[in-house]
Specification:
Length: about 180
């Protein structure tokens, strides 16, 4: 139907809050056509929808790892990776951190640090982004495992994960690291 609408989480559905979820308004909705149309006409939703103008806000999914990347694309990736590393509370570039764009969609950037046998040096590469709609420990863990698998990496070879210190990533009770 539209880019702002997704299926509600099982938790919201089991609580009877609705089967649909507006990514812009962070609202659970009944999955009835009239309810969805009514919600789409609300002032709050319309204001948030304005920021989705593609001419103003390009999708970050266009960025990421590409074997046939041009010099300009590589430069853009490098600038983005440096920006993410510089603006993180952890001053290393081999970490996970979710960022939110103006449309409140979250993006999880991935970078990897590894030893390059051929060059006999430690390398850091930007792997790409992944859209994350809910930043719960379970959702982040699932997204992380999916991304690692899609990249053709073996999760058993993972030695450590660096994060910005957020509870949902490395908290002691319920976090990506504990899941």
């Amino acid at each position: 139907m539209c880019d702002w609408l997704i299926r509600a989480s099982e938790e919201l559905i089991s609580q009877g809050k609705g089967e649909a979820y507006c990514k812009l308004c962070h609202a659970a909705l009944r999955a009835h056509k009239t309810d969805l149309e009514k919600h789409a006409k609300t002032k709050t939703h319309k204001e948030r929808e304005k920021v989705l103008n593609v001419k103003i806000q390009p999708k970050l999914s266009a960025f990421g790892y590409s074997k046939g990347a041009t010099t300009i694309e590589k430069s853009n990736d490098l600038q983005l990776a440096v920006y993410l590393a510089f603006h993180s509370s952890v001053r290393s570039v081999d970490h996970l951190d979710e960022s939110t764009d103006v449309a409140t969609v979250k993006y999880m950037p991935y970078m990897v640090r590894y030893y390059n046998e051929k060059n006999k040096t430690i390398m850091v590469d930007f792997l790409g982004f992944q859209t994350v709609y809910r930043a719960t420990a379970m959702e982040l863990c699932s997204a992380f495992k999916e991304f690692i698998k899609d990249m053709g990496l073996n999760i058993n070879n993972l030695i450590a994960i660096g994060t910005d210190g957020a509870n949902n990533l490395c908290g002691k009770n319920n976090s990506l690291l504990r899941t």
